[in-house]
Amino acid sequence: MSLELTLGACGACALSGVFGFLSARRSPLGQTAAAAVMVIASAAGMVGALAAVIDGTTTTAAVRGVLPDWPFQVRLDPLSGFFLAPIFLLGIVGPVYGLGYWRQADHVRTGRRLGLCYGLLVAGLALVALSADGATFLFAWEIMALSAFFLVATEDHEREARYAGWVYLIAAHVGTLLLFALFAILRAATGSFELRRLAPEEAGLGLQTVIFLLAFAGFGLKAGMMPLHFWLPGAHASAPSHVSAILSAIVLKIGIYGLIRTSMLLPDLSIACGLLVLVSGVASAVFGVAFALGQHDLKRLLAYHSIENIGIILMGLGLAIVGAATRRSEWLVLGLSGCLLHVWNHCLFKALLFLAAGSVVHATHTREIDELGGLAKRMPLTAAMFAIGAAAICGLPPLNGFASEFLVYLGLFHAATDDSAAFSGVALAAPALALVGTLAVACFVKEFGAVFLGAPRAAHAAAAIEAPWSMIAPMALLAALCAAIGLCPLIVFPCLDGVLATWPGFSGPRLAELAPYPSMIALGAALVLAAGVGVLYVHRRSARARRAAVVTWDCGYLLPRATMQYTSSSFAAQLVGLYRWILRPRIQRAPPAGVFPGRSQFASHVPDVVLDGVLSPIWYRFKSRLAVLRVLQHGRVQRYIVYILVALCGLLLSLVPVMDLARKLVGK
Amino acid sequence: MISSINALLVVVLLLNLYLLGTSRIRALIHGAAIQGILLGCMPLLFYERFAPLPIVIALATLVLKGSVIPGMLLKALRDAQIKREVEPLIGLVPTMLLGALGTGASIAFATRLSLAPEHAETLVVPAAFSTVLTGFLLLTSRIKAISQVIGYLILENGIFIFGMLLLEAMPFVVELGVLLDLFVGIFVVSIIIHHISREFASLDTRRLTSLKE
């Protein structure tokens, strides 16, 4: 039943945008209908997915009729159900948010395409999670990758969006190529496309390592782990915000899903693989947050935080793999559940943050943090939602980010007290995680402060008005889920235990025996109580006090101006300076000079070290070397067809046994 | 049965040469339509016994290739107000000679292939090769967008003739594929024609070079 529900939801999502795509350009009907279909279908799919996770059942089926003579093998087990739930959650919140954010009447040219591709993306993602054989997986993977490309390039009249789209497309196809190699090797080893656990005699340790490394690179590219993250910041920043939300919340996670799935297929995962995942997790987390500090684009900053959180997820997964390889079930339980719970949590709070950022962009038409300010007074609901999301992403109790990071911490502490000194080195990841948390707090203080507090720095920020209810309601849903998981992590433990039970050969303790959940709940309750009392106290005092209208930022100046406030770059200057060796900030300054200084200016920018520092220069060098070949690309259709003809004749001639004929002639 | 198939295919081959040799676009369209009608009769000849599937395919082919698509092209021709292929990239006589050479080469080539015995006696394989080649020649030598569409059509006709061999083995998939290809081809190219004539006030595909990066 669950499988039918999820498959039906998948199909309905895929078709949801068709009506809108074919309807009139200015009619709002198509968008509303698509949103209604998406909400109903996704809710049904979510029920099916969660039922499968909690029951711990595995159902398989073959879907016929999509492609002739090629049935899709699908399987719903707890792991796929666990990833399907957030996919369908974004299938609910995204289209509803889009009703206010990307109204068809305002976006006549792009709205219908966006509606169609959003549904296709949700369906593709769901099919990836459901697929039980390699061919179906790749088919679904391509649907996902291509619809995401069209979504990233929604505003293709802008150069920036086109560039981001191309970079994304290249990265996606390189990743797909690696996956082709992965599934080809798996098929060679097992003799079928079915994704099943390899028997130890089917693949040696070397082959298994190759399989794992291919999966690590291919899925890592999709997950956006450092240094394969280069496509991510541009794509997340340029896409419409509900698309950024699904990209960051789900599309990255599908890479994590692939990595977990592949890890479950391999019988003898080595410790080295686990350590590789752990170390790249640490690198992604630390450098992701460091790059986030240097950003001054509202959504680019959030995008770098996605890299950071993928790092935290990978740290959990790495710990779990090391635990599985060394038969330490506590590490496996805590690492894997930390990883999985952070997948859910990051999906919730990052979607929330992107939607809140989207409502800022919607109101002010700019993503530049240094042009905003003072929005908390103009958009109080959005500010509150952003604050909840920011606190959650920083891992502050009592919100959900804390719950999952705490599990990873606990696992690392288990490693610290391990008998074998060699493995207790794993625990060195714990201080890295603490560092990441601290920097994340600094980064979100900067972003929240510069965007929502203080005085508006530009006219469009001063003129901002609160977002409509269709945008607030999805955010409120996400914020409520963040708070629920944070306050009572117990509610998700059955889901985590359900997935853990499917890890091959797992016979460890249940999560509830390892995680001190009563104290977590007590701590959360105490914090909420303290915060409530504090708010009440301040509220009563301010009700009694007289109010005077004064400027927010005075600083002892005679004529304070909004530009004198801390900007995002001045707030982060010290921390960016500490990480100058990796961030390589570009600073242009013309400081005031002389007694009567003229115009002075200052600009700082942190480019992406991989894309702008390494890949772009290599590409341009490559391109100039290959300029000779541009002769072939002359734009004449006729000559292009000649190329095809020549290739065809060449292939046919290769059938003719030229050598035999020549030999015969010579023989005569 | 084989003799009637071969007779049909010989007419198809002659039509190929006629298409390569004519400069009037109206004649080109008429030739393609006649070829389509001939191809529409072929599924009936290939199936010895009575069955609904070849009749459906034959009817669909007759309607599509014999009347609908030529009708669309004639309408496009009226709208565009052109009559002739004035300056082909390769002259008419050279292309005709190339076509004749290609027909000979494909007959020679087909004898080297290891075909099933019931197919070896017919002209199906050489006719298919030759028709595909004709399509390619039209595509590469003609400039007007409508001539290009006809080139695609002839190319598809060649693939259709090949499809006849598989009609018994995997009928439905092949035929669906062929008709779909055709539909898409026409669809795309009519869009191209529409856009070229609107943007450039001409149907000259050489103007497309300005779209080059």
Number of helices of chain A: 28
Q: What is the radius of gyration of chain A?
A: 27 Å
Helix amount of chain A: 55-70%
Query: How many extended strands of chain B?
Result: 0
Beta-strand percentage of chain A?
Answer: under 5%
Q: Beta-strand level of the residues of chain B, as a percent range?
A: under 5%
Number of H/I helices of chain B: 8
Give the uncertain stretches of chain A in residue-range form.
none
What form of chain A results from the Cα inertia axes?
globular
Indicate the low-confidence ranges of chain B by residue numbers: none
Major sheet attributes of chain B: none
Largest interface: A-B, 17 and 22 residues
Distance between the termini of chain B: 54 Å
Give the strand tally of chain A. 4
Distance between the termini of chain A: 75 Å
Structural class category of chain A: mainly alpha
Largest sheet of chain A: 2 strands, antiparallel
What topology does this entry show?
The complex is a heterodimer of chains A (668) and B (213).
Chain A: H1 2-15, H2 18-22, H3 29-55, E1 59-67, E2 70-76, H4 78-101, H5 111-130, H6 134-152, H7 159-190, H8 205-223, H9 232-238, H10 241-265, H11 271-293, H12 298-325, H13 329-364, H14 375-378, H15 380-393, H16 400-416, H17 421-424, H18 429-452, H19 459-462, H20 469-487, H21 493-500, H22 511-514, H23 517-544, H24 568-578, H25 580-583, E3 586-590, E4 601-605, H26 611-625, H27 637-653, H28 658-667
Antiparallel strand pairs in A: 1-2, 3-4
Helix pairs in contact in A: 1-3, 1-5, 3-4, 3-5, 3-21, 4-5, 4-10, 4-13, 4-20, 5-6, 5-10, 6-7, 6-10, 7-8, 7-9, 8-10, 9-10, 9-12, 10-12, 10-13, 11-12, 11-18, 12-13, 12-16, 12-18, 13-15, 13-16, 13-20, 15-18, 15-20, 16-20
Chain B: H1 2-21, H2 25-46, H3 52-80, H4 92-112, H5 117-120, H6 124-141, H7 145-165, H8 171-200
